[in-house]
Design a protein that fits this description.
This protein is an alpha+beta fold. It has a single domain, classed as Gcn5-related N-acetyltransferase (GNAT) (Aminopeptidase). Helices cover about 35% and strands about 25% of the residues. The protein has 4 helices and 5 strands; from the N terminus they run βααβββαβα. Strands 1-2-3-4-5 form a 5-stranded mixed β-sheet, with helices on both faces. The protein is globular, with a radius of gyration of 15 Å. About 15% of the residues are buried.
């Protein structure tokens, strides 16, 4: 059995677009199509870190870590965590989260946060087992677009 290889995407490559879209389809039913141009913008953004995991020659998981500074300190967010359904149950999600936590520690002191729908029972159990504490808060969302 090959090992899971987690890496940060540093350069946009068309070879990542299809696997990212395959994973996004399993994360959300919004039907969003991720493009090479969006990947380029993401990897050029110093506040965003896209991590992919390769296993048996294919991309099987992804996670994004975002960071920013606020008057209350450094904030870091884990976003878009998804493991391909074909390889779930092998602790790849745990490996991705632990990798992101270690990476975040290297960025300096701050708060590392994430959100997860209550219906994602396994994901919520994973985050609690990785020592994330559930915070009582309301999350609000507004889609904005350029006028």
């Amino acid at each position: 059995m090959e090992q899971l290889d987690i890496f940060e995407v540093k350069e946009a490559c068309d070879c990542y677009v299809e696997p990212i879209n395959h994973l996004l389809a399993q994360l959300s039913s919004s039907g969003r199509c991720f493009t090479l141009e969006q990947l380029q913008e993401l990897v050029e953004n110093k506040a965003s870190h896209l991590f992919l995991a390769e296993y048996n020659g294919g991309i099987v998981a992804m996670l994004t870590l975002g960071e920013y500074l606020a008057p209350t300190g450094r904030k870091m967010w884990i976003e878009d965590v998804v493991v391909d359904a074909a390889v779930r149950g092998h602790s790849f999600g745990r490996a991705m989260v632990e990798y992101a936590v270690d990476y975040a520690r290297g960025l300096g002191d701050g708060a590392l946060m994430l959100t997860s729908r209550p219906s994602r029972v396994a994901a919520n159990a994973l985050y609690r087992s990785c020592e994330f504490e559930q915070k009582e808060t309301n999350v609000y969302k507004m889609n904005v677009s350029k006028k």
